[in-house]
Amino acid sequence: GRGRGRGRGRGGKADRGRGGRSGSEGSRGRRRGAPARRMDADEAIERALALATTLGGDGGGDDVDMRLVGQLLADCKDARTEAASEAAWSLYQAAVVAGTAAEFNIRQYNFALGAVQHGAAGEERVRAVWDALVTAAVPPNAVTLSQLAHGLCKGAKDVPSTLAALRECASRGAAVDAYVLNILLNACLREAAAAGPDASSDVKAVVRDAALAVWEAGKGIHNERTLTSTIKVLADAGDVDAAMRTFRAAWEDKTPLDVDALATALRIFAVTEPAAVLIGVMNMAQEQRGLEPNTMCANIVLAACSKDGEFSTALTLWRHMLERRTPPPDKASLASVILACGRAGRVDLALDAFAEGKEKGVECDTVTVNVLLEACAKSDAPPGEALGILMDAIESRIPVDALTISSLLTAYYSSQTPTSLANTPGALDQAFAIVELGRFMSVEPTPRVTNALLRVCVAAGDLPRASRTFEVTVATQRDGQPSAVDERSIRVLMDGYAAAGDLAGAARVLRDAECLGVEFGDVTAAALMRACIDAGDVESATRAYESCVVHHGVGPTTRMVNALLVGLARSGSWREAIRLVSDDVIGSETCEADDETVRLFSTAFEIGGEEEQAEVAKQMGMWLTGSDDALIAHLLERDSAEES
């Protein structure tokens, strides 16, 4: 690569062609042959300010060697703090006024560029030093380019102006290389990471355009590092297509490629492409570029196989890795192939892969055990299979966690019917024993564990024991301890009572939860109403709605109103629909009608009302939405259907 083998002391050119870090200048300003003593930030600031005072005093810089100025600027640069940059700027300005800066060579200018770049005024000060360098007609070098890039480019918006400065620097004899370009791309990466996946489209567009500008500007000098950075920035900015196009173009241009770039490309391709495409890319890299994919590359392909349900392909790759050890599999490889088989319902193959990995000495951890238990839960594996997996894990001293316990509960009971659970002596006791086993291994119940245990109780038809478990779990919770129940716990109990036809019991679950201090929201409230409506009991749904609003302080919300309107529409209860909308929708700040509200509301009139109520429905539709367009459209659609 460009620049290899040209390493120096401070300020020399390191392995720049590969995107490595350059050294820092200054050792030659010290006594040749003596080791440089690294100065801490406070001492560097103190000495820089003292020398600035000396330069500003009587006699100015008559007795001050410009190499001493350069040395202190280098020390401030190494401190990399805003305070050190302020001290360096004071020293630089004093050197300019005293005339000492007139003797600067490129080393001292590079020290100054690096020293003054931190803080809000950093960019302005870097430009001032650069302008002085240009005026003095001092030829810049590669270090100058890197310091300019660091000092001027703090984010994606700075890329165009920084590229312009780099072009000017290059026109004066310095050669832009991949290392310098990667500084700009790293600034884009930091901005994309800080903005996160929920960044606005405008922010993503700025980052994307900046990365593409750097890529275009560096045609012919890019390497594997800039390729990796560019496609990662484009993917982080939400333009996966541009990232894939850039990688393909780089491939055609024979841009250098390494396994890191390949792994990044595979991860990006996996967002939209099937596993077969990833395998093709990996094989091409091996055959045409002589790259040996590493374990990370293979794991990305295995994960894609899992996502696509390609368990057969995953097993083939897994066994190739086991037999040839190129690349060697690891615990993530094992977890991925188990997941692929589990998602396809082939727990037998998942268990085979687990046994193969164990035989070959592949490390197994908590994640692997949990994935295998989840595979059991999605199949008709015998209950003892899951328990055997846990016992093997304990014997192998593999730590277990709350997910292990919840997955075991799900797997242990998923293959059993409610009848067999209810008729098997000690079945429920075994479930509670599993939770106690977790406690013995210092795994306190989490909502996921509690919910799995509640589901077992519900499946066995023992609703009273499920309720007691919920109450005891909440009551024995220690202060400051993470909650072992959540809103989903309420839903499990409530759905259990509703499925058993005990709507009063389902409503009682909400009352008990409130008394115990377990909060719930409109999703749970709407679920209770839907359960009542599905049972054909609109009156219970109405009571549940009123209880949630009046007694539990939940709602009214659009979700709750629409849930109740489903029942009112089915029964043609248009008067109740009018009352509901009038009281809780019109003029409400928490409940805003949507198209579904209008549709259900008008349906209540169609089923239960008479022709004169149609005008009322139209007027109400206008009140609901500010326009009766949505309601009229629905009525016209109905009339058209009736005519046909």
Helical segment count: 33
The radius of gyration is 35 Å
- Which structural category do the helix and sheet elements fall into? mainly alpha
What percent strand?
Answer: under 5%
Q: Count the strands?
A: 0
Flag low-confidence runs.
1-35
- CA-CA gap between termini: 75 Å
> Overall mean pLDDT score?
85
How helical, in percent, are the residues? 55-70%
Largest sheet: none
Shape by Cα distribution: extended
Please sum up the structure shown.
This protein has about 650 residues and is mainly alpha-helical.
Structural description of this entry:
This protein is an all-alpha fold. 69% of the residues lie in helices and 0% in strands. It is built from 33 helices and no strands. It has helices spanning 41-56, 66-79, 82-98, 106-115, 122-135, 142-152, 159-171, 178-195, 201-217, 224-236, 240-252, 259-272, 275-289, 295-308, 311-324, 331-343, 347-359, 366-377, 383-395, 402-414, 418-423, 427-440, 447-459, 463-475, 487-499, 503-516, 522-534, 538-550, 558-571, 574-584, 595-608, 611-625, 629-643. Helix 6 packs parallel to helix 8 (178-195), helix 20 packs parallel to helix 23 (447-459) and helix 23 packs antiparallel against helix 24 (463-475). The protein is extended.
